[in-house]
Hints:
This protein is an alpha+beta fold. It has one domain (3-383): Chorismate synthase AroC (Chorismate synthase, AroC fold, 4-Layer Sandwich). It contains ten helices and 17 strands.
Amino acid sequence: MLRYLTSxxxxxxELLGIIDGLPAGVDLAKDAISxxxxxxxxxxGRGGRMKIESDTSRIVxxxxxxxxxxxxxxxxxxxxxxxxxxERMSPDASDFGKADAVTRPRPGHxxxxxxxxxxxxxxxxxxxxxxxxxxxxxVAVGAVAKALxxxxxxxxxxxxxxIGGIRAELKGRPETLFKRAESSPVRCxxxxxxxxxxxxxxxxxxxxxxxxxxxxxxxxxxxxxxxTFASRDITLDGMxxxxxxxxxxxxxVEIGMGFQAARRPGSVVHDEIFHGQKGYFRRTNNAGGIEGxxxxxxxxxxxxxxxxxxxxxxxxxxxxxxxxRAFKASVERSDTCAVPAAAVVGEAAAAFVIAQAMxxxxxxxxxxxxxxxxxxxxxxxxxx
Length: 384
Protein backbone atom coordinates (compact mmCIF):
# COMPACT_ATOMS: atom_id res chain seq x y z
CA MET A 1 0.00 0.00 0.00
CA LEU A 2 1.28 3.46 -0.93
CA ARG A 3 0.17 6.19 1.48
CA TYR A 4 1.25 9.52 2.87
CA LEU A 5 0.61 11.87 5.77
CA THR A 6 1.29 15.60 6.09
CA SER A 7 1.59 17.76 9.18
CA UNK A 8 2.27 21.40 9.95
CA UNK A 9 0.58 24.80 10.14
CA UNK A 10 0.67 27.78 7.80
CA UNK A 11 2.83 29.84 10.18
CA UNK A 12 4.44 26.99 12.09
CA UNK A 13 8.15 26.17 11.80
CA GLU A 14 7.80 23.66 8.97
CA LEU A 15 5.63 21.30 6.98
CA LEU A 16 6.26 17.57 7.34
CA GLY A 17 5.47 14.70 5.00
CA ILE A 18 5.93 10.94 5.32
CA ILE A 19 5.43 8.62 2.33
CA ASP A 20 5.18 4.91 3.04
CA GLY A 21 5.15 2.09 0.50
CA LEU A 22 7.59 3.34 -2.14
CA PRO A 23 9.62 0.55 -3.72
CA ALA A 24 13.39 0.62 -3.47
CA GLY A 25 15.39 1.92 -6.41
CA VAL A 26 13.34 4.94 -7.49
CA ASP A 27 15.50 7.87 -8.60
CA LEU A 28 14.63 10.82 -6.38
CA ALA A 29 16.49 14.10 -6.58
CA LYS A 30 15.89 16.98 -4.18
CA ASP A 31 16.03 19.41 -7.11
CA ALA A 32 13.13 17.65 -8.85
CA ILE A 33 10.94 18.25 -5.79
CA SER A 34 12.06 21.89 -5.54
CA UNK A 35 11.15 22.49 -9.20
CA UNK A 36 7.60 21.32 -8.55
CA UNK A 37 7.38 23.55 -5.46
CA UNK A 38 8.52 26.55 -7.51
CA UNK A 39 5.75 25.89 -10.03
CA UNK A 40 3.16 25.99 -7.25
CA UNK A 41 4.35 29.42 -6.09
CA UNK A 42 3.90 31.09 -9.46
CA UNK A 43 0.76 32.63 -10.91
CA UNK A 44 -0.71 36.05 -11.52
CA GLY A 45 -2.89 36.91 -8.53
CA ARG A 46 -0.80 35.30 -5.79
CA GLY A 47 -0.45 37.18 -2.50
CA GLY A 48 2.38 38.49 -0.34
CA ARG A 49 3.22 35.10 1.21
CA MET A 50 4.87 34.04 -2.04
CA LYS A 51 7.33 36.95 -1.71
CA ILE A 52 8.43 35.59 1.66
CA GLU A 53 8.63 31.86 0.98
CA SER A 54 10.95 30.25 -1.55
CA ASP A 55 10.03 26.64 -1.02
CA THR A 56 12.58 23.86 -1.10
CA SER A 57 12.18 20.37 0.31
CA ARG A 58 14.69 18.53 2.48
CA ILE A 59 14.72 14.74 2.25
CA VAL A 60 15.37 13.42 5.76
CA UNK A 61 14.84 9.67 5.38
CA UNK A 62 14.20 6.81 3.00
CA UNK A 63 16.64 7.94 0.30
CA UNK A 64 20.35 7.15 -0.03
CA UNK A 65 22.58 8.45 -2.79
CA UNK A 66 19.62 9.55 -4.89
CA UNK A 67 17.55 6.36 -4.72
CA UNK A 68 14.74 5.24 -2.43
CA UNK A 69 15.61 2.40 -0.06
CA UNK A 70 12.13 0.98 0.47
CA UNK A 71 11.82 2.67 3.88
CA UNK A 72 9.36 5.55 4.50
CA UNK A 73 10.50 8.77 2.83
CA UNK A 74 10.48 11.82 5.11
CA UNK A 75 10.21 15.35 3.69
CA UNK A 76 10.51 18.76 5.37
CA UNK A 77 9.65 22.22 4.02
CA UNK A 78 10.72 25.15 6.18
CA UNK A 79 8.34 28.08 6.69
CA UNK A 80 10.51 31.20 6.53
CA UNK A 81 7.74 33.33 8.02
CA UNK A 82 8.01 31.31 11.25
CA UNK A 83 10.55 33.86 12.51
CA UNK A 84 7.73 36.41 12.75
CA UNK A 85 5.29 33.98 14.42
CA UNK A 86 7.36 32.18 17.06
CA GLU A 87 5.34 33.43 20.03
CA ARG A 88 1.95 33.54 18.31
CA MET A 89 2.29 29.92 17.12
CA SER A 90 4.46 28.61 19.95
CA PRO A 91 3.79 25.06 21.21
CA ASP A 92 4.90 26.13 24.71
CA ALA A 93 2.27 26.90 27.37
CA SER A 94 4.45 29.75 28.68
CA ASP A 95 3.63 31.77 25.53
CA PHE A 96 -0.14 31.52 26.01
CA GLY A 97 -1.90 34.84 25.51
CA LYS A 98 0.87 36.53 23.51
CA ALA A 99 -1.43 36.83 20.49
CA ASP A 100 -4.97 38.17 20.24
CA ALA A 101 -7.58 35.50 19.54
CA VAL A 102 -9.24 35.50 16.10
CA THR A 103 -12.94 35.57 16.94
CA ARG A 104 -14.46 36.80 13.68
CA PRO A 105 -14.76 33.80 11.34
CA ARG A 106 -14.60 34.34 7.58
CA PRO A 107 -17.55 33.24 5.42
CA GLY A 108 -16.55 30.41 3.12
CA HIS A 109 -13.63 29.29 5.28
CA UNK A 110 -13.21 26.45 7.78
CA UNK A 111 -13.07 28.99 10.65
CA UNK A 112 -16.51 28.79 12.27
CA UNK A 113 -17.31 25.13 11.69
CA UNK A 114 -13.84 24.13 12.86
CA UNK A 115 -14.22 26.21 16.03
CA UNK A 116 -17.57 24.60 16.78
CA UNK A 117 -16.30 21.08 16.02
CA UNK A 118 -13.16 21.28 18.18
CA UNK A 119 -14.48 23.72 20.80
CA UNK A 120 -11.83 26.32 19.96
CA UNK A 121 -12.31 29.93 21.03
CA UNK A 122 -9.60 31.12 18.65
CA UNK A 123 -9.99 30.58 14.90
CA UNK A 124 -6.19 30.59 14.61
CA UNK A 125 -6.28 26.97 15.82
CA UNK A 126 -8.37 26.10 12.76
CA UNK A 127 -7.24 28.38 9.97
CA UNK A 128 -3.54 27.58 10.35
CA UNK A 129 -4.05 23.95 9.37
CA UNK A 130 -6.97 24.60 7.01
CA UNK A 131 -4.80 27.02 5.02
CA UNK A 132 -3.74 26.07 1.50
CA UNK A 133 -0.15 26.46 2.67
CA UNK A 134 -0.46 22.73 3.40
CA UNK A 135 -0.56 22.07 -0.35
CA UNK A 136 3.16 22.84 -0.58
CA UNK A 137 3.81 19.46 1.02
CA UNK A 138 1.21 17.80 -1.18
CA VAL A 139 3.12 19.07 -4.21
CA ALA A 140 6.35 17.68 -2.76
CA VAL A 141 4.64 14.32 -2.23
CA GLY A 142 3.29 14.49 -5.78
CA ALA A 143 6.81 15.07 -7.09
CA VAL A 144 7.86 11.80 -5.43
CA ALA A 145 4.88 10.06 -7.04
CA LYS A 146 5.91 11.43 -10.45
CA ALA A 147 9.40 10.00 -9.90
CA LEU A 148 7.80 6.57 -9.46
CA UNK A 149 5.60 6.97 -12.56
CA UNK A 150 8.33 8.25 -14.89
CA UNK A 151 10.03 4.85 -15.51
CA UNK A 152 6.67 3.56 -16.76
CA UNK A 153 6.27 6.43 -19.25
CA UNK A 154 3.39 8.02 -17.32
CA UNK A 155 3.24 11.82 -17.22
CA UNK A 156 0.84 14.16 -15.43
CA UNK A 157 0.11 17.58 -16.97
CA UNK A 158 -2.21 20.48 -16.15
CA UNK A 159 -3.43 23.84 -17.38
CA UNK A 160 -6.02 26.46 -16.48
CA UNK A 161 -9.08 26.60 -18.71
CA UNK A 162 -11.20 29.26 -16.98
CA ILE A 163 -10.83 32.16 -14.51
CA GLY A 164 -13.60 34.55 -13.53
CA GLY A 165 -15.83 33.38 -16.38
CA ILE A 166 -13.17 33.83 -19.08
CA ARG A 167 -12.67 30.49 -20.81
CA ALA A 168 -9.70 29.32 -22.85
CA GLU A 169 -9.87 27.66 -26.25
CA LEU A 170 -7.68 24.56 -26.20
CA LYS A 171 -5.92 23.68 -29.44
CA GLY A 172 -2.97 21.35 -29.88
CA ARG A 173 -1.45 18.23 -28.42
CA PRO A 174 -1.30 17.86 -24.62
CA GLU A 175 2.46 18.39 -24.56
CA THR A 176 2.03 21.64 -26.52
CA LEU A 177 -0.75 22.84 -24.23
CA PHE A 178 1.42 22.11 -21.20
CA LYS A 179 4.40 23.97 -22.64
CA ARG A 180 2.25 27.02 -23.37
CA ALA A 181 0.70 26.85 -19.90
CA GLU A 182 4.13 26.75 -18.25
CA SER A 183 5.06 30.04 -19.95
CA SER A 184 1.77 31.77 -19.07
CA PRO A 185 1.43 33.89 -15.88
CA VAL A 186 -1.94 32.21 -15.27
CA ARG A 187 -0.91 28.76 -16.59
CA CYS A 188 -3.38 29.06 -19.48
CA UNK A 189 -2.32 27.72 -22.90
CA UNK A 190 -4.55 30.25 -24.75
CA UNK A 191 -2.54 33.48 -25.03
CA UNK A 192 -5.54 35.70 -25.67
CA UNK A 193 -7.51 34.27 -22.77
CA UNK A 194 -4.43 34.58 -20.54
CA UNK A 195 -4.32 38.32 -21.09
CA UNK A 196 -8.01 38.71 -20.34
CA UNK A 197 -7.66 36.58 -17.21
CA UNK A 198 -4.86 38.77 -15.90
CA UNK A 199 -6.93 41.89 -16.49
CA UNK A 200 -9.92 40.56 -14.59
CA UNK A 201 -7.66 39.40 -11.73
CA UNK A 202 -6.15 42.89 -11.47
CA UNK A 203 -9.65 44.38 -11.43
CA UNK A 204 -10.75 42.03 -8.66
CA UNK A 205 -7.66 42.89 -6.62
CA UNK A 206 -8.38 46.63 -6.85
CA UNK A 207 -11.92 45.96 -5.68
CA UNK A 208 -10.74 43.82 -2.74
CA UNK A 209 -12.41 40.77 -4.26
CA UNK A 210 -11.22 37.29 -5.31
CA UNK A 211 -11.78 34.96 -8.27
CA UNK A 212 -12.07 31.24 -8.86
CA UNK A 213 -11.90 29.14 -11.99
CA UNK A 214 -11.42 25.73 -13.57
CA UNK A 215 -8.28 23.73 -14.27
CA UNK A 216 -7.70 20.50 -16.14
CA UNK A 217 -5.33 17.67 -15.28
CA UNK A 218 -4.34 15.04 -17.84
CA UNK A 219 -2.57 11.75 -17.15
CA UNK A 220 -0.90 10.24 -20.21
CA UNK A 221 0.52 6.73 -20.54
CA UNK A 222 -1.56 4.77 -18.02
CA UNK A 223 -2.02 1.12 -18.86
CA UNK A 224 -5.56 -0.24 -18.96
CA UNK A 225 -6.78 -1.89 -15.79
CA UNK A 226 -5.75 0.45 -12.99
CA UNK A 227 -8.48 0.58 -10.35
CA THR A 228 -11.38 -1.87 -10.21
CA PHE A 229 -15.08 -2.34 -10.74
CA ALA A 230 -15.27 -4.88 -7.91
CA SER A 231 -14.97 -2.63 -4.84
CA ARG A 232 -16.58 0.79 -4.93
CA ASP A 233 -14.18 2.45 -2.48
CA ILE A 234 -11.16 1.84 -4.71
CA THR A 235 -12.50 2.66 -8.16
CA LEU A 236 -9.94 4.81 -9.97
CA ASP A 237 -12.35 7.64 -10.76
CA GLY A 238 -13.62 7.64 -7.17
CA MET A 239 -10.09 7.88 -5.78
CA UNK A 240 -9.11 10.63 -8.22
CA UNK A 241 -12.27 12.64 -7.54
CA UNK A 242 -11.73 12.33 -3.79
CA UNK A 243 -8.09 13.40 -4.01
CA UNK A 244 -8.88 16.44 -6.17
CA UNK A 245 -11.90 17.41 -4.09
CA UNK A 246 -9.77 17.34 -0.95
CA UNK A 247 -7.72 20.28 -2.25
CA UNK A 248 -8.71 23.47 -0.44
CA UNK A 249 -11.46 25.50 -2.21
CA UNK A 250 -12.33 22.82 -4.79
CA UNK A 251 -16.12 22.54 -5.14
CA UNK A 252 -16.58 20.31 -8.16
CA VAL A 253 -14.77 17.55 -10.09
CA GLU A 254 -15.61 15.94 -13.42
CA ILE A 255 -13.90 13.28 -15.52
CA GLY A 256 -13.97 13.20 -19.30
CA MET A 257 -17.15 14.70 -20.69
CA GLY A 258 -18.34 15.06 -17.09
CA PHE A 259 -21.57 16.98 -16.58
CA GLN A 260 -22.04 17.40 -20.33
CA ALA A 261 -22.72 13.66 -20.54
CA ALA A 262 -25.94 14.23 -18.59
CA ARG A 263 -27.20 16.57 -21.31
CA ARG A 264 -26.57 14.36 -24.35
CA PRO A 265 -27.90 11.01 -25.63
CA GLY A 266 -25.86 7.86 -25.11
CA SER A 267 -25.17 7.54 -28.84
CA VAL A 268 -22.89 10.59 -28.71
CA VAL A 269 -21.49 10.02 -25.22
CA HIS A 270 -20.01 6.52 -25.23
CA ASP A 271 -16.70 5.79 -26.95
CA GLU A 272 -17.02 3.14 -29.67
CA ILE A 273 -14.51 0.27 -29.58
CA PHE A 274 -12.39 -0.83 -32.57
CA HIS A 275 -9.61 -3.35 -33.13
CA GLY A 276 -6.50 -2.99 -35.26
CA GLN A 277 -2.89 -4.16 -35.51
CA LYS A 278 -2.07 -2.63 -32.11
CA GLY A 279 -5.16 -4.12 -30.43
CA TYR A 280 -8.28 -2.43 -29.13
CA PHE A 281 -8.68 1.32 -29.45
CA ARG A 282 -11.23 4.14 -29.32
CA ARG A 283 -11.41 7.14 -31.66
CA THR A 284 -12.96 9.37 -28.98
CA ASN A 285 -12.29 9.82 -25.27
CA ASN A 286 -15.52 11.13 -23.79
CA ALA A 287 -15.01 8.78 -20.84
CA GLY A 288 -11.83 10.61 -19.91
CA GLY A 289 -9.76 7.43 -19.86
CA ILE A 290 -11.84 5.66 -17.22
CA GLU A 291 -14.67 3.13 -17.69
CA GLY A 292 -16.26 1.11 -14.91
CA UNK A 293 -13.85 2.48 -12.32
CA UNK A 294 -10.78 1.36 -14.31
CA UNK A 295 -8.32 3.05 -16.64
CA UNK A 296 -8.97 2.00 -20.25
CA UNK A 297 -5.62 3.02 -21.73
CA UNK A 298 -6.72 6.45 -22.91
CA UNK A 299 -5.61 9.77 -21.48
CA UNK A 300 -7.22 10.39 -18.09
CA UNK A 301 -8.85 13.82 -18.11
CA UNK A 302 -9.95 15.51 -14.88
CA UNK A 303 -11.39 19.00 -14.45
CA UNK A 304 -11.88 20.79 -11.14
CA UNK A 305 -13.81 23.91 -10.19
CA UNK A 306 -12.19 26.16 -7.59
CA UNK A 307 -14.28 28.70 -5.69
CA UNK A 308 -12.93 32.22 -5.07
CA UNK A 309 -10.56 32.54 -2.10
CA UNK A 310 -12.74 33.23 1.00
CA UNK A 311 -10.40 35.86 2.48
CA UNK A 312 -11.51 39.21 1.04
CA UNK A 313 -9.98 42.63 1.51
CA UNK A 314 -13.53 43.99 1.52
CA UNK A 315 -14.72 41.58 4.23
CA UNK A 316 -18.19 40.06 4.24
CA UNK A 317 -20.53 40.13 7.22
CA UNK A 318 -19.86 37.77 10.08
CA UNK A 319 -20.47 37.45 13.81
CA UNK A 320 -17.96 37.74 16.63
CA UNK A 321 -18.12 34.44 18.54
CA UNK A 322 -17.46 36.16 21.87
CA UNK A 323 -20.06 38.94 21.78
CA UNK A 324 -22.34 37.53 19.04
CA ARG A 325 -22.36 41.02 17.59
CA ALA A 326 -22.25 41.62 13.83
CA PHE A 327 -18.85 42.55 12.44
CA LYS A 328 -16.95 42.45 9.17
CA ALA A 329 -14.94 39.23 9.04
CA SER A 330 -11.24 39.21 9.89
CA VAL A 331 -8.69 39.57 7.09
CA GLU A 332 -5.69 37.28 6.66
CA ARG A 333 -2.98 37.79 4.06
CA SER A 334 -4.24 36.02 0.97
CA ASP A 335 -4.30 35.65 -2.80
CA THR A 336 -6.67 37.28 -5.26
CA CYS A 337 -6.68 34.18 -7.46
CA ALA A 338 -4.91 30.87 -6.82
CA VAL A 339 -6.29 28.79 -9.70
CA PRO A 340 -2.89 28.53 -11.46
CA ALA A 341 -1.34 27.16 -8.26
CA ALA A 342 -4.30 24.85 -7.67
CA ALA A 343 -3.69 23.25 -11.08
CA VAL A 344 -0.18 22.28 -9.96
CA VAL A 345 -1.61 20.88 -6.72
CA GLY A 346 -4.15 18.97 -8.82
CA GLU A 347 -1.29 17.39 -10.78
CA ALA A 348 0.29 16.25 -7.52
CA ALA A 349 -2.97 14.82 -6.18
CA ALA A 350 -3.64 12.90 -9.40
CA ALA A 351 -0.04 11.66 -9.63
CA PHE A 352 -0.21 10.14 -6.17
CA VAL A 353 -3.49 8.31 -6.87
CA ILE A 354 -2.07 6.88 -10.11
CA ALA A 355 1.06 5.84 -8.23
CA GLN A 356 -1.12 4.14 -5.62
CA ALA A 357 -3.01 2.28 -8.34
CA MET A 358 0.24 1.20 -10.02
CA UNK A 359 1.60 -0.11 -6.71
CA UNK A 360 -1.65 -1.93 -6.02
CA UNK A 361 -1.62 -3.61 -9.42
CA UNK A 362 2.07 -4.41 -9.88
CA UNK A 363 3.41 -4.64 -6.30
CA UNK A 364 7.11 -5.35 -5.85
CA UNK A 365 9.58 -4.41 -3.12
CA UNK A 366 11.91 -2.85 -5.68
CA UNK A 367 11.33 -0.82 -8.83
CA UNK A 368 13.00 -3.59 -10.86
CA UNK A 369 10.49 -6.15 -9.54
CA UNK A 370 7.60 -3.80 -10.13
CA UNK A 371 8.74 -3.24 -13.74
CA UNK A 372 9.00 -6.99 -14.38
CA UNK A 373 5.41 -7.40 -13.23
CA UNK A 374 4.36 -4.43 -15.35
CA UNK A 375 6.11 -5.74 -18.49
CA UNK A 376 4.44 -9.14 -18.11
CA UNK A 377 1.03 -7.51 -17.81
CA UNK A 378 1.57 -5.27 -20.84
CA UNK A 379 2.44 -8.35 -22.89
CA UNK A 380 -0.81 -9.94 -21.71
CA UNK A 381 -2.73 -6.82 -22.78
CA UNK A 382 -1.14 -6.88 -26.25
CA UNK A 383 -2.05 -10.51 -26.77
CA UNK A 384 -5.65 -10.26 -25.49
